[in-house]
Amino acid sequence: MTSKAKKRKSDGAVVNDVTLAEAVQYLTSCKSRPKIQGNVELQNSLNKIDCVATETGLPAEDITTLVSVAANGTFPEAICSRLIRNLIPATVVPSEAVIRAISWMSTNIPSSKIQGLLVRWIILIYNMLDTLNDLHALYGVLFYFLENEVMCRSVCHLLYLLTRKEDVKLFRVRLLVRLQKRLVFFPQRDRVWLARIKAVADRQIVEGPVIDVTGRYTSEQAKRLKRDVIPSVQSTAVTTLSSDLPKSFGQSVPFSEITSFQLLLQNFDRLELPCQMAAALKNRNLQHVLLCYPDPSIPMRLSYWLDHVLCEEFLVNPSKDPSRAEELLQNLITFTEFLKESVPVCENFLVKYLHVWNGVDFRPSVLKLITRFRLHPFKVLSDLVLEPLRKLFLCSSVYCKCQLLIMFTQLLYNLVTVELLRYRICCKWQQGKNNLEISSVDDSNNVCVFTEEVEEFNPEETISQYVEYVGNLIEVGLLIEQDSPLLMHCILNFYEVLSDLHLEHSMMLIILPRPSVVYTSLFSNSATSLSRMCHIFCRYRENFLSMKNVEVTSLSACDQQYRIMSLKRIKQFNMFIMDYSNSLWRRLAFCDTEKRTIFQMLSETDLENVDSNLYRQCFSLYRHPALVGYFVSYLKPHSNGERRLILSSFKASSGYVKQN
Amino acid sequence: MSVKLKSPSVQRTSRTPWRSKRFTRTPITRSLGSVSYTGVSTRSRSVRNRRSSIERTPEEKSFNGLVLKTWHVYRLSPLYKFSHETSALRNYSRMLSGHLEAEYNVGMAVITENEKANMAVFSIVRGLQKSGREPEAIQIELKQKPIRGDAEARTVYTAILCCVGASDDVLEKVKQPFVLLPLMLSKGPVMLNRYLTSWLECQFDCSVHAAHFSPLSLSWMVAIWVGSEAESTKPVMLKYKVPSEVEGLDHITLNINSKDCKVLWDCIHSTEDKTCHKKEVVTFVQALEAHFYHHFQINISAMPLCMIGTPIAVAESDGKIKIFTPEHVHQILGLVTEVILETSIEL
Q: What's the domain of life for this entry (chain A) (predicted)?
């Protein structure tokens, strides 16, 4: 403090021969009850502070010091109050100052008038505090000041500014309701004081950090923030009046009392559901109920609510503060993950939103929700969902491309694990319902909570077209991003899921990876790509073998057709294998064998100029650029210093690496 | 977004969920249904028979209470287990009165005398619907009854929940126990509106939000309402919001003689055609904007349209409307209902 004060002394303006630093220094050094009358030094110091405060405001550290001076009872009330009124910040008020004020207030050394003045000061400079968290931590302490008659009103105002959702407790509400009978609303006092603070802040706005004196949120936004997006569990008369339960079950239990799964099980037969079903988005117990309650109107209530709120938060009137919308999406994600099912209204919302989406807002959440999409005819899926995503994919960074590919992989996984089965059961159930036309078939189809009419189409067709679509994007993506290893990693993830369609998900469908991906892996510099692709080939082989041995007679006509189609791909698959083993094991890359290779990179004339042995060997196991590192570490223990051997092995590969 | 022409005459036989829901969003035509509800409608005969107990007297059909007042428009999701029965309505009145009292006891520190209501009255507004298939409109009045003396209760707040001219598709989708009343007109102190809203949300598991009219919706309104016959000579008004970068100017208001507007509209739209096309609406508004450009060299179409006025009604983008003529109530509320239902995803 003192060193800083001295520094400022050199350039500070001098009024009455006292600098601000000296003034502050004098006030802090004063012993208890100094002489007031005729104390020139004291008067000078006060005048100086007055002057500086009105002109430029006080620096942050001086405010902290002066708060202590004003509150520690050294000076009489009049001087203290003058000091507090001059605590006009130049830029920000450190929360340290406010904490000191409150701690002095707790000691009862300052008189209640000074205490009241301090609270009023905190209210005025509330928006200029550097951090609110420290002050908020003292919420409980502040609450006790309500007992003080003089300060009550100001403390109420301060609490009003500070209160967050988690602060609202029953005992506090009770106390405030009691207080409210005595008090009226807090009027805007201290107008002149506020004007002084604002005038200084306006002057300072050019320099220093920009502070929003007018408030952090407009009142309308603040009101909206104070209300939860998702309603809490509560009951009203509507459910009690028209309860579907027979009286013999006895007293029904309001859902707000169900706090654990145990309680839920004990009271399952006499639950009184909450009045707002949307509470299920946040309440796990209610989600359990939703899963097994037979009443179809329950999911409808949730759907209608979601419809309205999603529209409001994202399409019609998007809030300036994205945290509300994000919270809603997060809850929706947890909810759908728990149900393992997408909410149709949420799908419809996404379709709408994707067409106006900028591709940045809430990207992870939006993509996560898309992964839960149901099976639809490919035309529909493509028009409404995949087309906007394709545009995003083509014009975004590699990181976003990877996010999208991860999403595509998850969507594929979801389609083949959950949605395919659900679709088949739904179809069967729907046919049964249409044929019988009466209620002999269960009203709910017990595979989905949100029942939707399904269209008749071929689900395998959708999946194979979807894979085709992703394949196209992968090819273009590899070109644009020049075989980025990160992108390759995501691509291989996709093909790992795809390779196991038959064995893992018992589909009669095997779709091969794109040749461009296969050969990018073969010629890549990354050993992971190469080895993972080899692993994927192994999986394909297992799948082909297993599919060959399937009892044909047990299959439906459609599945038989798909089986034949898939088995036809063995020929191409064998070519891939041939190329891999020719290059890696047999040192015969780019060779025309009796089984023709798929790729032909060099024309005959080009090959004439090159040592044929060299290029044929350059992708062999021990010369492959991706594997050189492994090869070296393998040779090291055996080489006994024979470096020539290693170097000659490098020859071919190093040329390739350089080109890359 | 891809749009498929929505023709009201085509009856969908096999409902394909994706198509019915997702392709018909932004309409390119609207029917010019200026006919008010007459009680006789071919498609609702069977329903009407069921409701034959409801008498419709002429005075019920005049909506003088609705006109010449500024209403705030809210949109509601379908109400769960709402009932039109008299006993139920009485019950709601009682419950809402109780709710208001509870809110005052807990509530805010300041309540001025004007905003205090201690009595709620639910009633049915007969005839505020376009077909018998639509649920009847409900009026909620919050009244202030003096505690001492038998002076008459004073209405401090009015809300009207209605559904005027929803398409058959939409009506079909909302099944029992849900009731579709998507439009709420409200007038009165904000505080009471908030109390009522929270009560509705809790009681009928619905969600209430203030409606917003997009510039396109406002264009539809101005075109269709200019086209309707009206005796009033109020000018047609288009108000554009000036971007905040321009200092000293908030709005640009364009006033045109309504007769001239009607002539212009009749040139664009043929009177025999009972449907209004989006192309016509766009042409109409563009013509007015071009006229403005010709005189002032200001490209007004670059600014968002925020308010429109016609001889029969005024609408603002933040969801306020004012109706001038009682005979056009159905037409106006019909269009507003349509616009509001379009914002919904599911319906």
A: Eukaryota
Residue A208 confidence (pLDDT): 41
Q: How far is CA A91 from the centre of its chain?
A: 34
Q: What are phi and psi of B275, to 5 degrees?
A: -115, 150
Q: How far is residue B3's CA from residue B329's CA, in Å, rounded to a whole number?
A: 30
CA distances from A274 to A165, A278, A302, A330, B82 (A): 21, 9, 12, 22, 16
Q: Say which range, A316-320, A582-586, B326-330, has the weakest mean pLDDT.
A: A316-320
Kindly provide the ipTM of the predicted complex, given to two decimals. 0.85
Token reading at A366: 């939006």
Amino acid at A262: Q
How many residues in total does chain A contain? 660
Phi-psi region of A394 (alpha: psi -120 to 50; beta: other; left: phi over 0): alpha
Gyration radius (Cα) of chain B, Å = 21
**A345 close contact with B: CB closer than 8 A:** yes
Domains of chain B, by residue range, sit at 61-211, 215-317
Q: How far apart, in whole angstroms, are the C-alpha atoms of residue A357 and residue A367?
A: 12
pLDDT per position as a tens digit, B157-189: 999 999 998 888 888 888 888 999 999 999 998
- What's the rounded Cα separation, in Å, for the pair B341 and B347? 7
Cβ-contact A93, A208 below 8 angstroms = no
Contacts of B16 in chain A (CB under 8 A): 455
Residue B342 burial class via C-beta count within 10 angstroms: exposed 0-12, middle 13-18, buried 19 and up? middle
Structural domain spans, chain A: 2-220, 509-660
E-assigned strand segments in A154-276: 253-254, 271-272
How many CB pairs lie under 8 A apart between chains A and B? 102
Q: Which residues of A touch B91 (CB under 8 A)?
A: 241
- A332: which residues sit within 8 A by CB, 6+ positions away? A281, A306, A343, A346, A369
The answer to whether B110 contacts A185, with C-beta atoms less than 8 Å apart, is yes
Centre a 10 Å sphere on the Cβ of residue B274 and count the other Cβ atoms it contains. 11
**Is the separation of the CB atoms in B337 and B165 below 8 Å?**
yes
Tokens of A629: 């590192």
d(CA A63, CA A200): 15
Q: Does A212 touch chain B (CB under 8 A)?
A: no
Encode burial over A404-415: b for 16+ CB neighbours within 10 A, e otherwise: bbbbbbbbbbbb
Q: Is the peptide bond before B17 cis (omega within 30 degrees of 0)?
A: no
Q: How far is CA B120 from CA A493, B82, B198, in A?
A: 62, 17, 15
Per-residue pLDDT tens for B96-123? Answer: 998 888 877 765 545 566 667 888 999 9
Flag if B80 and A309 touch (Cβ within 8 Å): no
Segment (H or E) for B309? strand B305-309
Q: Cβ contact (<8 Å) for B207 and A311?
A: no
Structure tokens that stand for A413 in this block: 């996984």
Q: In this structure, what token pair is assigned to residue A81? A: 């109050």
Task: Indicate the average pLDDT of chain A.
Answer: 81
Distance from CA of A299 to the nearest CA of B (A): 12
| pLDDT per residue as tens digits for the range A172-206 | 888 887 777 666 666 656 778 888 888 887 776 54
User: Residue A146 is encoded by which pair of tokens?
Assistant: 């309500």
Single-letter amino acid code for the residue at B246 = V
Q: How far apart are the first and last CA of chain B?
A: 17
Strand-pairing partners, residue B290, are: none
Alpha-carbon gap: B246 to the closest alpha carbon of chain A (Å)? 22
Selecting from B81, B203, B207 the residue whose C-beta is nearest the C-beta of A309 gives: B207
What stretches of A247-314 adopt beta strand conformation (E)? 253-254, 271-272
